[in-house]
Amino acid sequence: MKTIQHDYKFVLLSLILFTFIFYSYEPDFGFLETIGEVLNIVAGEPINASFPITFYQSAYVDHRFDPPRLRIFTLNKCVKNSQFLLADLHLNGNSSESVRKNIYGKPLDGRCPSIYIPASSCLYVPYTFSISLKPNEDPKNVTIHLGSRKVELNVEKIYKKTTKGITVCLQPVYYYSQWQNIVLYIEAWRAQGATRFIVYYHSGTKETWKTLEYYRDLGLIEIKSWPSFPSLPVDIADKYPRIDDSVFILSYFMAMNICILDIKTTIGTVADFDEVLVPTNGRLLDYATKEMTDTKVGAISFENYYLSLTPTIYTSNFSGVASPKFQTYGKQTKYIFNASVLAIAQVHWPHSFVDSFFSWTRTKKANGALLHFRYEPGVGNLANTEKPFRFFPDDPSVHIKNMENTAHKIFNGVMPTFSSKAYDALQECVNKIIPVEDKVCRSTSGICREEMDKVEDWVYDKSEPIFLVAS
Ligand SMILES: *[C@@H]1O[C@H](CO)[C@@H](O)[C@H](O)[C@H]1NC(C)=O
Ligand SMILES: *[C@@H]1O[C@H](CO)[C@@H](O)[C@H](O)[C@H]1NC(C)=O
Ligand SMILES: *[C@@H]1O[C@H](CO)[C@@H](O)[C@H](O)[C@H]1NC(C)=O
Ligand SMILES: *[C@@H]1O[C@H](CO)[C@@H](O)[C@H](O)[C@H]1NC(C)=O
Ligand SMILES: *[C@@H]1O[C@H](CO)[C@@H](O)[C@H](O)[C@H]1NC(C)=O
């Protein structure tokens, strides 16, 4: 009896411990999928061509995981636990040698449908399908079989990052008009140690595009296409909404997580064009390197301060940047991370790391701030307060001069005058979506296109397909 009771306690304790570990582990990759794979060996069913799904063109073999994982990024309707992708991994780049896998998926932000209200009514949710690879499995490309149809993906390899520096990822830029933000952003981030910028581009004004091209030609930013999404295969197209009309903000969650893989520097971050992370003292790169190297710290989180600049940078006078006025303090933190270990990013905090169950124990609060120079900072009357945070770790006047010279170069000395017309039109469109938030997905690029085309001659990305559907 005693031993039974003992066993019972042991089982109970194990169960609690298991639940705890399971729950804590939940944000991490491998474990859940392995369980999923085991449970579904018998009952699973392959996703076929009647299922609405589109694939990012590349699959990744992520060697930051041990063992390496094959990771596939998709946008699709919610998938049942028993559903998997039936894939052939071509080991020689041809079909002579291939291994067949059932690959299970998870929504990138953890839930499907999303629990984030503005995204919860979107049909298409960003997913990652992934599986760990055996040592002899080094696929060159992957064929996904969807019944009689298929999709071919090329494969890119990802390793731990060794080049010292910071890479800044930008979520898809769409209907963007505030080119002045970009000038301040690049100048400030560079002063903080950023060496590369990866910009996913959908649409912007001619001035925005010119500004991006200028920095691209200097070798600073890499512009990556983020076009409108493709139509579904013709035999199911009329059964579902168009992808463009039912995906939350251009699937920025997917762009952000693909960007992390493209980072080649030791440190990375995801920040919008009106956000710069700064430490209280010194340069961000030095601060972050010191805090993270040879420690358990995988990410450093910065509190958000909205601020105003006088004169406003939209007058193309950047002198206000030297003495920002701090306004509301917001909860939406942003973070920098060790790019060798971050597995999945959320917008405001890391979701999981490649080598750790407990992502929250690896995030540290920064001695610094997120400087958020939003066009419309907050609501109501904002008190201005003094804070020790500045855009530049050194003499700001040099940077102010640089920004003004840069603006002159970009526009050949003829400064475009700023108009808030485009900005206002987008706000108006978004606000129309919000009041019916439980019924309409905030799918800005699709829903707002017609109205945005009325106010501006946009430069759209027009690249060949980046997202693939079954054929
Ligand atoms: C495709 O999958 C659906 C759902 O799993 C299933 O009902 C249907 O029979 C399948 N179609 C074919 C042709 O296998
Ligand atoms: C496929 O790849 C293998 C190994 O590289 C090679 O020997 C074979 O000739 C290739 N087959 C075709 C049809 O290209
Ligand atoms: C794999 O990719 C290579 C290069 O794009 C291509 O030539 C080859 O046909 C592909 N093989 C398969 C089986 O898709
Ligand atoms: C990033 O993590 C790797 C692996 O844990 C570690 O070796 C490296 O020192 C870290 N780098 C930085 C800059 O934090
Ligand atoms: C920018 O604004 C400041 C402060 O209002 C003013 O002193 C300065 O002359 C302006 N610079 C230019 C180039 O207009």
TrEMBL record:
<keyword id="KW-0328">Glycosyltransferase</keyword>
<dbReference type="GO" id="GO:0016757">
    <property type="term" value="F:glycosyltransferase activity"/>
</dbReference>
<comment type="similarity">
    <text>Belongs to the glycosyltransferase 92 family.</text>
</comment>
<dbReference type="GO" id="GO:0016020">
    <property type="term" value="C:membrane"/>
</dbReference>
<keyword id="KW-0812">Transmembrane</keyword>
<keyword id="KW-0472">Membrane</keyword>
<dbReference type="Pfam" id="PF01697">
    <property type="entry name" value="Glyco_transf_92"/>
</dbReference>
<dbReference type="InterPro" id="IPR008166">
    <property type="entry name" value="Glyco_transf_92"/>
</dbReference>
<feature type="transmembrane region" description="Helical">
    <location>
        <begin position="7"/>
        <end position="25"/>
    </location>
</feature>
<keyword id="KW-0808">Transferase</keyword>
<protein>
    <recommendedName>
        <fullName>Glycosyltransferase family 92 protein</fullName>
        <ecNumber>2.4.1.-</ecNumber>
    </recommendedName>
</protein>
<keyword id="KW-1133">Transmembrane helix</keyword>
